[in-house]
Request: fold
Amino acid sequence: MTSIQKWIYDSRPKGEISPQNYRLVQTDETLAPVRGEVVVEGVFWSVDPYMRIQQSAKDTWEPPHPLGEVQNGGVVGRVTEVGDGTKGLQIGDWVETFMGWRTHGVLSAVSCRKLDPEIAPVSTALHVLGMPGRIAYFGLTEAGKPRPGETLLVSGAAGAVGSIVGQVGKLAGLHVVGVVGTEEKARWIVHDLGFDAAINYCDHQSAGTMVDAFCKVAPNGIDIYYDNTGGYTTDAVIQSMNLRARIIICGQISQYQGGLDDPNTGPRLLHHFLYKRATLQGVLARDFTARMDEMLTHMGPWVRDGKIRYHETIIDGFNNLPKALCGLFEGANTGKMLVKV
Amino acid sequence: MTSIQKWIYDSRPKGEISPQNYRLVQTDETLAPVRGEVVVEGVFWSVDPYMRIQQSAKDTWEPPHPLGEVQNGGVVGRVTEVGDGTKGLQIGDWVETFMGWRTHGVLSAVSCRKLDPEIAPVSTALHVLGMPGRIAYFGLTEAGKPRPGETLLVSGAAGAVGSIVGQVGKLAGLHVVGVVGTEEKARWIVHDLGFDAAINYCDHQSAGTMVDAFCKVAPNGIDIYYDNTGGYTTDAVIQSMNLRARIIICGQISQYQGGLDDPNTGPRLLHHFLYKRATLQGVLARDFTARMDEMLTHMGPWVRDGKIRYHETIIDGFNNLPKALCGLFEGANTGKMLVKV
Reply:
């Protein structure tokens, strides 16, 4: 018998999410993998903004996360038992899997991605060499269509996705500006990650002054906007974009705490797309799942050689998972937010 | 000496445009075409929603229309004099040209498009076989990427562009729904133009009830939205669009009467683009100027054979040009609004 803990998504948040929306349960279970299955013991759990989207009362890319079930999510852990017919995986192997907020899982072996700790620390499979890295890479290169010398603006630039987007942008020869929420994050993306400039959105109460700020840090205008936040940053970009600009909607975190069900309001600016013959496109990591290897072919060596850097904000203790998720919406993370046991 | 009348764009409208923003001047001039020039006497003048955009105080696709100058715009007229070196044009020829709101113009012959009255009435060079037809055709076929069986929703569906878009959509095998502002226009697009259904936006006070209406007339959801109006119709579409929907921003007429300088507000809905991996693209007729012949190759026979129909709302008298322009924003036109002498 194994003592197992699980976080159950228990009630739909009204507006801001809180740990009260989750319930921790503990059970003793016999973990018995059958043919093709393995047992995984979690070590790193991912918290991601999309989790809050799935708590909207409305269908999004799929129906809302069911109540009363284990919160879904990506996990990195070790294989502790193997059934027959799983010879690709052995006890002790590191894997990345989507087993959610539970300490142990009996999983189909084919749903586990085996990790090579020689390439990079295994936790990177939840960010720079995982789902966030995949959408950062393909979102920028495919939807963004970057050309050397163009200007890229990234919102949520110190987040798990934004911090990678900016660095891939630099490798693609772009002038890169990041929008962040603290001075410390601004310093990090410029001094450690090599962004050309940073803007702290907290210095601006509205789109108007942000447009002025863009003129200074992006004097040639904005060709590509990789948006993780939405809100008035997007309003300012729409008024600062160049002819044939590309806007990539990867996230809208400023809208998630209630705004998905009861929308915030903002200025109607779609007429600018007409003037600039600009394009806006939504992207989702799952559309590129089949191209994971292609992403790793590029990003693996970049991470190994230090051309792409990352930072992990690690919260200790499985107990703290809901608190860590809530922290995402307060900007508590620099780079990737992870929970570790 | 020829007695010439001109409408001067005299003052910037604050909010709603009115004839007070124009001034009529009359002069006697000697019209003397030099080498390569012709004299054109106008017969049909076009009024177009873009004219109001150019009266915004801000740069759009070009700087604002200068004050104190003749209002620009497309005109169909007859050649009354020719200089040397214009042998492509002869006295009596019909031409379409961008000479603006004046009764006569001395123009470079190469700026005039010679018309063949055998193909269609010459006034069509200002709509179905002119600029509005060009953006309707290329906006739908290139930005819309229609596939047979998909659903197309068109706003401003009884306007010069929208009425063509819907008919090209039917020829492309689409299910076509038009949004209009009167019951009479609804009947026209369904009974005369062959749209599958019409919605009168005046029956709806908000996006919410319009979403319900879309469910009835577009039961398979919306794949392509060709937007000429913006406003809450667009809000409703964003909440009704299918996976990988394409939104084409061709016009935003609901925003032009002041909203360009002092934006209206509406709900923040960009997160839906993420869920649906949808695309939004602004289009402008001038991007397809070089492909006019290609458009005419398709549209000319369709118009000749009655596969594409049109309607002209003709206002008599050069004196009435500003009044005709203002009428566009009150929905006074069915199909193309023209002024004729």
Q: What stands out?
A: The first helix of chain B runs from residue 50 to 53. The first strand of chain B starts at residue 2 and ends at 9. The interface with chain A takes residues 53, 59-61, 227, 230-231, 234, 249-252, 255-256, 259-260, 263-284, 287 of chain B (CB under 8 Å).
